[in-house]
Amino acid sequence: MRTLVLNAGYEPLAIVSFKRALVLVMNDKATVIERIDGDPVWGIRGVYERPAVIVLTRYVRIPGSRRVPLTRRGVLRRDGHRCAYCAKGATTIDHVLPRSRGGADSWENLVACCLRCNNVKGDRTPQEMGWELRWVPQPPRGGQWTVRGTERADPTWEPYLSLAA
Questions:
Q1: Which positions fall inside the HNH nuclease domain (predicted)?
Q2: Does any domain span residue 155?
């Protein structure tokens, strides 16, 4: 049971356990805006519904430099597990400008790639191969990237996550 936590401005902040969400609600630090139907939680002060989405009562300042870390899994997820050269299923990542030629490990230089295209391309650039990228690689954006755990999002979270996209 997981709960989406929204800032006072309704931007997604985090995903916490429903127990942590209940503690925030019981201490009047958050308000429940979406509930999960089912068994309520009985406490000393009363009966509480299991929260699906809560909003904080006070605004929490988020550092502006909240960047998404560069990982192999992140590159594959950003590109939808599709090869940037042939659009087939991708299992590896490729440096557009090879590392041996000064290519950096960055969101702009890494793309998802199928094993076949990766082996054929080798240590060359797409221009040398006569290939074109199907999309321009860039850093991911949106609430689903800044809040971990939204890959397996609850359907009740969708309206709140789409606001941040």
A1: 70-119
A2: no
Would you call 100 helix, strand, or coil by DSSP? helix
In angstroms, the CA 75 to CA 99 distance is: 17
Kindly report, residue by residue over 79-135, the tens digit of the pLDDT: 989 999 999 999 999 999 999 999 999 999 999 999 999 999 999 999 999 999 999
Residues forming beta bridges with residue 35, ordered by sequence position: 51
User: How confident is the prediction for the chain on average, in pLDDT?
Assistant: 86
Same domain as 77, residue 60 = no
Cα separation, 99 vs 45, whole angstroms = 61
Provide CB contacts within 8 A for 24, sequence distance 6+: 5, 16, 30, 54, 56
pTM for the whole thing?
A: 0.58
CA nearest to 112, candidates 69, 73, 82: 82
Whose tokens are 């049971």? That residue is 1
Domain span at residue 42?
2-64
Residues 93 and 7: their CA atoms lie apart, in Å, by 35
